[in-house]
Design brief:
Helix 2 crosses helix 3 and helix 2 packs across helix 4. By secondary structure, the chain is mainly alpha-helical. The protein contains 4 helices and 2 strands, in the order ααααββ. Strands 1-2 form a two-stranded parallel sheet.
Length: 74
């Protein structure tokens, strides 16, 4: 799931939720809800998060197997 991918990538960069939120220009509560799977994130916040994490955001319903991209499962 994309929520786990975001959390894993954020932690691998030693970023807190607050650091990510500040850099992406979105509320920390939004990051928390996304990572917890409580909300279905909209495309714009996902794009902002992917830019901060320097990870491509691709919507195609597949997984390349090496977890180098964020994928939305359809």
């Amino acid at each position: 799931m994309i929520t786990a991918q975001i959390k894993t990538k954020r932690k691998s960069l030693n970023m807190s939720q607050q650091n990510l939120a500040d850099a992406a220009g979105i509320p920390k509560s939004t990051i928390g809800r996304i990572e917890a799977g409580i909300t279905n994130p909209k495309v714009n916040p996902l794009l902002q998060i992917s830019r901060v994490l320097d990870t491509p955001f691709i919507i195609d319903g597949t997984n390349d197997g090496n977890n180098s991209n964020l994928y939305v499962e359809l």
